[in-house]
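User: Assemble these into one structure.

Assistant: Restating your components, then the assembled model:
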Amino acid sequence: DTAVSQTPKYLVTQMGNDKSIKCEQNLGHDTMYWYKQDSKKFLKIMFSYNNKELIINETVPNRFSPKSPDKAHLNLHINSLELGDSAVYFCASSQSDNSPLHFGNGTRLTVT
Amino acid sequence: AQTVTQSQPEMSVQEAETVTLSCTYDTSESDYYLFWYKQPPSRQMILVIRQEAYKQQNATENRFSVNFQKAAKSFSLKISDSQLGDAAMYFCAYRSSGSGNTGKLIFGQGTTLQVKP
C-alpha cells in the first residue's frame, strides 16, 4: 500500500528517557513533516524537511532532533522526555508543488 | 502571521440533514490554499476538500462543498445528507503558496461533529 507509515503507534515511557519515532513514506514525495497534536487536539508543525534538508524548525526544544537519512524517511528522536511531551505526533509528506499533505496514523506518546 | 479560527467547538446534525462548519482566517497574502481535514476517533487525518484562493469557484467533493469568501476571509464546509460515518473532528487549515512556500499547514482549533441517528 502507498502510504505514510509511522511506528510505534503507542509509546509509553518514563520521564527522563530517550525515545524515537520512525516515519517512512513510499509516495515519492520530497517533503516530510512532523506535527504535534496536544491534549486539546490542537495541531502544530514542528519540523519539515525537503530532500533531507531542514526547512522548518518551529521553536521546538532542542531535546527534539529530527533525522532524515533519505527523502523517504524522517525520524524523530526525543531526549530527556518530560510530562509535557505527552501528545500525538503525526508524520506527513507532500510534494513541494503545493500538493496536499498525506498524514501517517499518528503516534500517541505518554510520558509518566 | 497567518491564523485560522474555528469558532464552533462542537456541532451536531441529524442523519441525512445538512450541516455547515465555520472557519475564518487571517492573512495578508493573496495566493494560498485552504483545506478541511477530518479526524475520526481512529485518529487518522483525512483530507476532505481543498480550495485554491485564486479560484473563485467553490470546491466540491461529493457530499462535501465549501463556501469560500475571499474578501471576508471565510471558508465554511457544508456536509449534505450527513451520515453516521461523518462523525469526527474537522480541522480547517491554511497553507501559503508561491515562492518560498514551505508547505506548512496552519490549523484551526477543530470542530467536533456529532451525527445523530
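The interface with chain B takes residues 31, 33, 35, 40-45, 48, 50, 55-56, 88, 90, 92, 94, 96, 98, 100-103, 105-106, 108 of chain A (CB under 8 Å).
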